[in-house]
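Ticket #4471: structure export looks truncated?
Reporter: QA, pipeline team
Priority: medium

Steps to reproduce: submit the single chain below to the structure queue and open the exported record.
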Amino acid sequence: MDRRHFLATTSAVFSVMLPRFAWGQAGKPPPAKTVDIADGRFGTTLPDPYRWMEDPKDPDWEPWMRAQAAYARQALDALPGRAALARRIGELTGDLPVASRVERAGTKVFVELRPSGASVAKLYVVDQPGGERRLLVDPEAVKDASGAHISLDWWRASNDGAMVAYGLSAAGSEESVARVLRVADGSHFPETIDRARFANPQWLPDGSGFFYVRIREGAVRGAADYYANAVAWLHRLGTDPRADIRIIAGGDTVDGYTLLPIDFPFVITTPGSDMALLLPYGGVRRENPLFAAPLAEAMTGKARWRAVARMEDQATGFAMRGRDVYVVSEKGAPLGRILRLDAANPDMATAQVVVPEARAPIETADAGLVAAKDGIYFARQNGGPMTLHRLAPDGKVTDIAMPFDAGIYNLFGSTDHDGVDLRMAGWVQPMGIWRYQPGGTLADTGLSPKPEFSTAEYESTRLIATARDGTKVPVSIIARKGLKRDGSAPALGQCYSSYGISASPIFSPRYLAFLEQGGVMFEVHARGGGEYGAPWWRAGQKANKANTWRDFIDGCEAVIRAGWTSPKALTIMGTSAGGIAVGNAMAERPDLFAGAIDNVGWTNTARAGVEQNSAPNFPEFGDPSVETEYRGLVAMDAMSKIKDGTRYPAVLAMTGITDPRVAPWHVAKFAARLQKASTGGPVLLRVDFDAGHGVGSTRQQVDAQFADVFAFVLSRGGVARPG
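Actual output as written to the record:
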């Protein structure tokens, strides 16, 4: 489900049950040209008639995409009630502020907030407790030469709150350009730093500069090696970035470990510590090594980094407080335990176990470990819902009471301040910023004001499906209380289940526009996610990936058997890596679904290795240069499984033309293949030419996408709505 925060008000919308909408649009989608090309590796031959789409300079690419977009737009706009849905969603999102991140530095509180009526998030500061917020960074006031919208990608305040480094990018590209401003008067330092998407600035104690990561000079955007050998630098404020001190990059060796091309070498600093940490973060790799060195040495670019954790230690998270480094290790403890080491003299053999392995796994994908003045905060997974815990300096662990079944999506803390802030939501509780102080209770900060609408009419239900191999797979369902379970309700079922990321509780006020019409939303917690720790993740990774989409299928069947919906009313959806789940579920069981939505989905996995974000994903899905892993990539390739003359459900394929994470040609190829092969429902290719993967999209863009999705699902489920 969407992991954004939406606030809103309510109004009434009527619905009527009608026969499934007849897609009576005149004409057909524009056909795609084909080429006689096939992939042949390790004895496997895969025809690839749409290979030409991988070249954005092909003269047919943009015209075909624009023609497809126009065709889809006409069809979607013609859906009964689509305009009313769009108006309703606008009511639910337009008026109330939405806070997404908070940072405390010195006496100041910095807040990333989309204010009432705004299109994108902005950065504010509250200078003193109880003071008014003051605008620092307004992307809407920045103009791009192309006319594309600008978004705030990332930011970090200096330890004393006097400076802020931040990155902006255009059209959802995430291609950040970094700048530094003085908080007191909003003035900027003269330098700008491009290629800063993964900057992750880490400030020096005196605020004179920061460590950051930059894509290497000469890297070609879109090339398969675009992210290879990123470089860590130290930048001094007011100086030319060309004079920055090189710290480390791919190919360098530290304490016996040679940084791989996919490693992003993040240097980490913590207020009050004279040590620095080096995290070679291997793309999407869950387990990474960690090194430490005196901060003064790290600043020279010639530090002698010493291993805190090596790859074999299976470290998935860490935090530093003073000279104490806390590491989540899954070696010999697959659900995770927390170890404490001395950063100045790290030795894993003598590390102290401060939090032993428990029945509930330690969550590191969304929440991670956070060091605060009063201790270390961490979360545990409980099959979706999460709990918050505090490790005090004396070793005592406190279990913090949760106000509802919650998903924790970020923890924000500093060793200069007691307590922790967290971004949290429930299945029917909108996202908010909550805070815990030692000795108190978890409380809503009010940074995201409560919406005027009530979710009291809706509830979440937990269903346990039995997969075909006997595995028990949870399914989380949201619907109106007392909904008649006769199979008639239109339903939207989703699945992601990759990278060990859990589908934890989340609620968007936009969902109300669908739920008010008697719709059902559900999430299948398939293997590949992190709901039950590393074993659950590994059971849906690489060669085991088929478990993900088969759990999705089996979960959908369990929902149908329970009467929540039926095959004639069920639409499934997968986003990004969830394209593997939705594409393969549809290919294997086209009879089970009325519709399928491929949202920026990775559906042509056999072509891994040819786009800019391929290599960083090898640890999760497989390296195509390794025969066994290439065969696994072929096995999860949904596009290659589409068969001519098959009655597939109606399909809505969606992409953004600047997508840096899943190249638009994945979705385009998938749609083109289905348009040629399917004898079933229509296949629409929705393209946003001012968006990427969804990160950085404006409120209006997201509203429009939800209106299209819900109108599509309701039309497939036989529900239409008068204007």
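Status: closed, not a bug. The export was complete when the record was re-opened. Leaving a note from the reviewer for reference: Residues 699-716 form the longest helix (18 residues).
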